[in-house]
Amino acid sequence: MKNLTKSITLILVLISLNSFAQNVNPKFSQAIKTGLDMVAAAKGGEDYLKAENYFERIAAVETKEWIPSYYSAYCNLYAGYNTASKELKDQYWDKALQEIDKANALSANNSEIYALKGALEFMKMSVDPRSRMYFMGNSAESLEKAIALNPENPRIYLIKGQDTFYTPEAFGGGKEKAKPILESAVAKFAIFKPVNTIEPNWGAESAKALLAQCK
Amino acid sequence: MQPIKLTLFFLFFFMFAKAQTKISGVLKTIKGTPVANANISLKNSYDGTSTDSTGRFAFITNETGAGLLQYSALNFEKDSVQINMGSGNITINLTIKEALNQLQTVSISAGSFIAGDGKKGAILSSLDIATIAGSRADIFAAMQTLPGAQTSFSESGLFVRGGTAAETKTYFDGMLVKSPFNATVPDQASRGRLSPFLFKGTSFSAGGYSAQYGQALSSALVLESTDLPEKTTTGISILSVGAGVDQNIRFKNSSITAGGYYYNLSPAYSLIKQQHDYTKPPEMLGGNFQYKLKTSETGMFKVYASYSRTQLALYSANIDTPAVPKYFSNHNLNIYINSTYKEYFGNRWKLETGFAYNKDRDAGLMTVNDYSRTDHLTEGKATLTKSFGQLSNFKFGAETFNTGRLESLNGLSRKYNDQISSGFAETDLFLTNKIVVRLGMRAEYSSYLQKYNLAPRTSLGLKTSVHSQLSFAYGRFYQNPEDEYLIIKPLGFEHADHYILKYEINTTDRNFRIEGYYKDYNRLTKISNGDPTNTGSGYAQGFELFWRDKKSIKNADYWLSYSFLDTKRDFRDFPMMATPTFAAKHTVSVVYKHFIESLHTQFGGTYSFASGRPYVNPNNPVYLADKTQTYNSLSLNVSYLTHVLKQFSVLYLNINNVPGFNQVYGYQYSANGLNRQPIVPAAKRDFLIGIMITIGDDTFVR
Q: Signal peptide: which range, if any (chain A) (predicted)?
């Protein structure tokens, strides 16, 4: 009887875990964690590309998970930051936008996905601002949507703060304007609790570092 | 507990006991170049790795049996190979095929100059066009800084490669615009009616254009309108010549834009001395309305409608009787409607339909004569495009125009009306990612001329390296004679054959192109004894250079155009073959823009040069043998970005012909040939100052 109770409890616990964290595939979450370690240890563009390949391999198997495609896009964003070639930047970010679309198709109305999309669109604009002003509108639209979906997502404010920080004052940017946005990012990071260990939880340090430069 | 432990033990044992396979090798291109950062993976498994800088890879997998080793890399086609795991290590050398990459893919380029936001092959953006010094946000003036176009200030329009202004046609979302210019003043160019801010793409083709575009002998200016505005904003512009306001209202899947403007040049003319003596300086009142609806994820419906009225009256010098200056007045009315619908459906099909209506009426007094002239155009068009392969497509369509003119002089009137129906088919065939062939055919029937024509068009693109391309185009182009001749009697189509050869090098920050051409004009309209016939002919040949550099000077951007033109025609009232008055042998433009961040200001300068143009001197027995002095112009503009009442604003100043160069376009001779007067610009120097305020947006671009 005791054993039976135990077994039933165990089964119940397992079921509840399953429904809570939807993807309790431990192999999957462990793989994502390994990938996040690769990202954390990345030192240059090549490392981000390797991590990107890694997430892509997971995405190819886990066709119902948005997270691997999200991180692939994230790695491509950073691979683009780490190259001086405008052509490569464009290619990495174009690929990232495709990956973001893939993630979006798997997880509709996800604030994190729209936030990253907004960041990518802004960077696409920055490659050739004069002829790509329309990306500005796309980026603003994506970030607005991210806010509407979850106003407490701190990464939106980090991305907005970054965009403002690096936009010349004459065009409505600058440190002064970026400061309050980054302050709210830092405040929101302080109380942010990720859904689980593999969902997006990046940016707190960048927000602090950038805010420090506003003073 | 014991059984569980045992199970776990067996599980681990089993896992470790599984045969491990090391898969290693090198990934290279077909030519043998190693491919770095490629993704090597095993299908249905997380296992895999990335190649290093020498294309090498190695990883260990626990999978056994048959499997698929996949490999992919940026700019390469994904590929795979069957392997069998579990029986020893695998060493495998892989080759990967290059994929069609946007940047490295050849394009149809001969003759054309694409300006557009985010467009492949775009050289200029819509913002570039709006901020060219001297162009004052006029699309046509901006196009004059590009190779192939003449600098013209005494006649409206674009004179391209030896062609008249009437041989350049303007298309708004694929639909012909019959009257794209503001009301005309004698011997002066007018601005274009359409604001550059309406468009996200501008493609200026100096020849060899697609079979989609008919009724243009020399050049096509193809304008593509913007999609939904991003947000609800109000734009206010206050200029030294008038003011305008427009309201953008953005809904979820649609938008409405309504605007109005009033321009009155009398304050400006009281300050800037004008060549003509105005009794009524130009006064213009107009409005426009736009509705855009996203009908689905890929569908778009657009309506643009505009209305404007202009009034002006002036006295111009009379060379024959200086005591009696010539009076001219004009009341102009212009209505333009353009509506298009676009949708993708089925297996890679695209449908585009359009409707356009244009009415332009001029009326007034010419010396003592009452005149009026009404031009009209109604057009319907439908195009179907089927995409196939990675980039190729086939399109076909039909269009019909109802066009004509009604004119009267002192109560006597005449008119003509024509229904031009046409069909076209065209394919862009990408044989590889380095070779593209366009084959097109256009057929037209004119009810007034009662004639058919058949125009073949072809274009070839050949990629010579990652950044360079060679292009060739041949095409035949037909056009109806101008309204002023057709109203006398029906004639035949005029036609021209274009041969174009172009070489270009394009990188993100720099563009270089050189293009040579030969054009053969036939059946041009010629007046003999007051009677128009199709007996004219002519040729044009030349080459053009273009260089743009956005990189070498920080925060600056400049481009240089040079055009060499050798042309002769026997048309209109010419007694013989001669170089027409609108053709300068050498034309140079330099456009420079510099943004100074600390001043929040962009400075721009445009320098234009043209060698002397021929003019008719009745005292010279050789027709059109005299040439004017060379033409020089230097224009400057300053845009200061600021806030007015906390709203983003641009303070704008433009000065044309800053050094006050003496500019002569030609001469008018008295009937007896003893006196002459130069044809000069409306004012020696001209300036425009204004402020544009945007409410509801924190960035300066609308």
A: 1-21
